[in-house]
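# step 3/5: fold
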Amino acid sequence: MALSPEDVIKKSFSATHLRRGYDETQVDDFLDEVVVELRRLVSENDGLRTDLEDCRASRGVAPAAQAAATSAPKGEDHDDAADAQELEDLRRQLAECQEARGAAERRAQEAEERAGAAERDRDEARSSLEAAAGGAAVGAATAGGGGEDPSSIISLAQRLHDQHVAEGESTRARLIEEGDTYKTTVVAEADEYSAELHRTGQETHDRLVAEGQATHDELVQTGQSRHDELVQAGQSRHDELVSTGEQTRDHLVAEGQANHDQMIGEAEQKRGQVLEDLHGKESALAATIGGLQSQERDLRERLRAFLADQMERLDGSRPTS
């Protein structure tokens, strides 16, 4: 499954109800780090792919192979260590390809230099032979009738010249053939090495894609099983809490009812005791009131008698007219 930095940025999570989730700030910071790392890996992978395509183009790789290489999906979600190792291998293979390309170019340049040196040697030999033939002709003309045939000397010089020219041409052809053969061999080796690198890269890419897909499926399966396990555990905990709450409620209701009945009984008992005490106090007060009323009557009678006695005394002591 292809995973890009934009997928990580746009990823959203649903809110949890049974338990608290992770800290949102920490999750956002970690996702930002993942996005930066994915962008770096994608950019580095694109640069390596561009360098590899340039190397294939310089070595004459078929366009179909280039198209197959450029059509590979980007941004696969792989393990960081495996990606780093694969990128390091690609860098090393690219460096080896560039070294092989530079060596092939140096060898081709050396073959061209050797061919140029052979051409220069041929030209120098031709110049020296022409100079020798000219000198022989001048010597024959100055010798006059010395007995040597000038035409034979000129023909000898011409044969020597043609022989040296033929040797130079054969040497030049041999050197050019050796250079072309060496160049063809080096180019074939570079093409074969480039094709091997492409095949290895494609196999590595397919393996990484398969491993990433397997890891993704495993993570999805693990997440689903973990989700089911958490849902089941949450439901069990919910049922347990509901049952415990109902039992606690029933216990509290029964205990409250018992306390209510006990308090009602105690209040009734205390009310009876209070009423009994009040009745006793009422009887005592009634007796006290009766005693006080008797004393009042007594006092009234005594006061009335006292007043009558005083009146009589007043009447007895009053002078008669």
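# step 4/5: annotate
The chain has five helices and no strands.
# step 5/5: archive (pending)
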